[in-house]
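Here is this case:
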Amino acid sequence: MKKINRRDFIHNSTKSVVGMSVAMTAFGTTSGKVLGANDKVVLGAIGVGGRGTSTLLNIVKKNTNVEVKYLCDVNPTRGDKLSKQLK
């Protein structure tokens, strides 16, 4: 099994989340279907420093059906700051 470093993990995870968000937005608006409770994406994030913060804020800004519910960071100040920005 190939070892993966933190930077690669975050990069690949971010691409996956953004890709899913874009796909959901594209298919949700073009299919004419009404979004229901099960169509909401709830995210959690671990490590919400500079890149994590900007990524989450961009995802939430561009996708109204995305909610960031869980945040975790070794530095509690970062998590608190992002939590306030998301409200």
The CA atoms of residues 60 and 66 lie 6 Å apart. The longest helix spans residues 6-30. The beta strands are 41-46, 66-72.
